[in-house]
Write a structure and sequence with these properties.
The chain is an alpha/beta fold. The chain has a single domain, classed as Ureohydrolase domain (Arginase, Chain A, 3-Layer(aba) Sandwich), CATH 3.40.800.10. β10 and β11 form a beta hairpin. α7 packs parallel to α8 and α8 packs parallel to α10. The protein is globular, with a radius of gyration of 18 Å.
Amino acid sequence: MNILDLDHSLTAQEPIVQRLADGRATRLDLLELGPQLRLWSTERNYQRFTQRLQQRPKRSTQRPEVFFVGSGDYHHLTPALLSNLPEPITLIHFDNHPDWVRFAPRRHCGSWINRALKMPNIKRIVTLGPCSDDLQNPQLKGGNLGALRRGDLQLFPWQHAPTKVWGRIGDGAGHEQRENHLHWRNLADQDWPSFLDNLIQSLPTEAIWITVDKDVLASEDAATNWDQGGMRLTHLLQAIRALATSKRVLGIDICGEFAKAPHHNLLKRWEAKSDQPAPERWSESDLLRNSITNAALLELFEELFP
């Protein structure tokens, strides 16, 4: 278990403290890099992160490598975790946001899916759970509808109204186009076990990687820097169990902690204030939900991958 300490958000949580103390988890000190990597990163700082990542203890078993990464502002670091995959995979992506916006030239937490789509060993990305307004007028916001059209990306919102588009996108596993709207196959309306069974049968690879931003969860189960989705923790745990018992999991990364962001960069400060809800909405008791949710995830991982 790897604790990537970028923002102090993990190391005070009791389930993490226990595992660091008894050796079940290892902390990689990345606090110096944290502010430079948060929200977006220059290529130079991203490469500094990849070099530090290589200094983590190497695995001695065939168990999946598990990473806890901190705030969802660091989700664009996931491609670094995927850089040395030994075989083709499907990336299973739980998130309240599609993270598919085309930004240039920096690596950005809202655009990293586009980087991942270009990696040779990633054969498909399946995004599960968005409820955010990123799916409103996605073409005006730079959403990668081309990947959706090709089927390289499949997207299943938890709950979202039809999305207006221009031109022909076509039907996909998670949507149907009717005239100029994409009508989504909302997960909240599905029988969850049956959906998971059908999803697993449709995956193009035997190996998978699971990446989770806890903002996919309802506010009853997580408190993050971003707006919360509608999926409940029980759904997420059930999905991970079904995937892990049917497919070979090469790795898992979890982000979506809450951490205050004292941005020194004026652009980052402006972006955080523009895009993220006010951090004052969470009380100390609210933040305990993250520890409880992480405890449930850790216990599941330890059961599935002894």
